Structures are given as C-alpha cells and as structure tokens.
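Regression report. Comparing outputs from two consecutive submissions.

Submission 1:
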Amino acid sequence: MKTQHDTLRDTLNELIEINHSRIDGYKKAISDVTQEDLQGLFGSIINESDGFAESLAEYVVKLGGEPSTSSTFLGKVHQVWLDFKAALSSKNRHTILNSCEFGDTQAIKAYDLALEMNELSEPLRALLIVQRTIIAESLDIIRSLMKANTDTKSEIAALDITQ
C-alpha cells in the first residue's frame, strides 16, 4: 500500500523529471535558433531547471528515495514535451516560443498539483512556490517575446501596405 510519504516522494521525482525534460527541450531549442536573445534566455532556463532538479533531489533523498535522473516521465506532460521537441524542428522563432510557452504552462500545472499536497513541509512548500514563480516569470518573458514578434510582423505588414 502506497503511503503519503511514498506519494510525496513520487511527486517530487515527477517534478525532477519535468525539470530534466525542460533542460532537454531548451538545449534542443538553443541548437535550433540563431538569435542570441533566445539562446541567452534558453541557457538561463536550463541553469534554473538544473538547480531546481538538484534541490528537489535533496528532498527525495531525505524521504529515503532515489532521485530520478530521467528526462522522460509519464502522463500528459510527457507528451507535451515530445510535442515541444518535435515542434522545435521547424526552427521558426514563433513556433519555438509557442512550444516553450506550452511546455512551461504544463510545468506550472504540475507544480500547482504538487502544491495542493497536504504532506508538504513548510520549507518544501516554500521551495516549490519559488520554483513555480521562477518558471512563471520565464513564461512571462516568453509570452512577451511572442507578442513582440507578432507586433513586429504587424508593423512590417502595415508598412508594406502603405508603400
């Protein structure tokens, strides 16, 4: 029978796997874009997710478990990241940003589910809140880049019409 302790450990391992998948996805994104702004942003996100996974792994060990080292995971989030990686093959800035937005939205949902658990200690809850907040901030940046890209295209189209 699975205990609350086991469920918490499994949930933390799922978050570790999500962060490993973010790392893999953003590494692929870096290799598929030439724009320095995106390369810098994606590199920063990779570093964040690496740190997140390490912090979560410490809690898994404290709970008597073995931290996941996998970058794949079960359920919908797994498919989301597969779709994310496949979409990156187009090397289109908007498509890449759209895929990043979708993947990070799913990561936030996973953190939200974890934060609903009653078994979280206050330090662990605080850690998850901080990590979720940082992912949300990255998502906001991605969305602003998507909007800027769309606005630029609209401006160019308008200028072309007037000439």
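Submission 2:
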Amino acid sequence: MIVAAAENDAIGKDNKLIWHLSDDLKRFKNLTNGHHIIMGRKTFESFPKPLPNRTHVVITRQDNYKVPEGVIVVNSLEDAIDASKKDLNPFIIGGGEIYKQALLVANKIELTRVHDSFEADTFFPKIDASIWEETSNVSHSRDEKHDYDFSFLTYIRK
C-alpha cells in the first residue's frame, strides 16, 4: 500500500488530496512507476486522466463502468489482486474503504506522514504496531516547496 496521511490519519476531502507535497508526489511516481496501481472508483475519478506508465486496476460495484482503454475494472479487492498477479509489487493507492480491506492482506505500507491534522472525509486506518514494524523513517522539514513537515515511513508486516 502507498498513502499520504496526516497525524489524524486524514487522507482526503471531497475526493481531493488535502495538501500538495512535491517530494511526496515524486516518491509516489518513483515507487509506482511500471507497476499495477489498485484503487477504488472514486480515487480513479479524482485523476484528470490515467497516470502514465502504470496499469490501473479500478474496483467498483457499478456494472458497465466506462474507463479508457487499458484500464482494468473489477468488482472486489480480491479480483484486483488477481488481475495484478504478474506484477511482483502492485500498489494499493486508495481510497479509504479499499485501504481498510487491503490492510488485512498487504505486506508493506509506504506511508508519507504529514505532521499536521486536517479536516477530512476520508481516513487511513490505524496502523497496529503489533502487526506492522516500522523499518524506515526519513524526516523532511517544511520548506519553500512543502507547506508541512512530513516523514517517509515504511512498514513491513511482522
């Protein structure tokens, strides 16, 4: 899984990101480039167009959901994982409900922790320290390109 979440686990509001952190977007691009990205319909619809050099797998309950050519549509997280099985490192990219389901099956979380709290309508589930071990923590201070302090954290399932 890959996510940017605030201290209060906020990840979005009105189907939009709450902040713009240049280094976080670069990290997302670098890590997901060339991989399958699994997401819910609302997350997919938040993009102006499919992201380049990634295979999009969209989970929706809607029948006959229309997507651009090359986008895979499935009805469950299990089907999304199955559709991504040729990729040794697919990424689950949201939203909130998909993250909740994926927390049960994922083996790694790439988290950008934004060191502030925000009003939101979508949240990342709590990370249970008895299940997940933090293996990397790189801090970044606020600067001219970043309005907030943030950290890149990696968690591996114990």
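Expected: both submissions complete independently.
Actual: both completed, but the second showed a warning that disappeared on reload.
Relevant detail on submission 2: Residues 107 and 140 are 25 Å apart (CA to CA).
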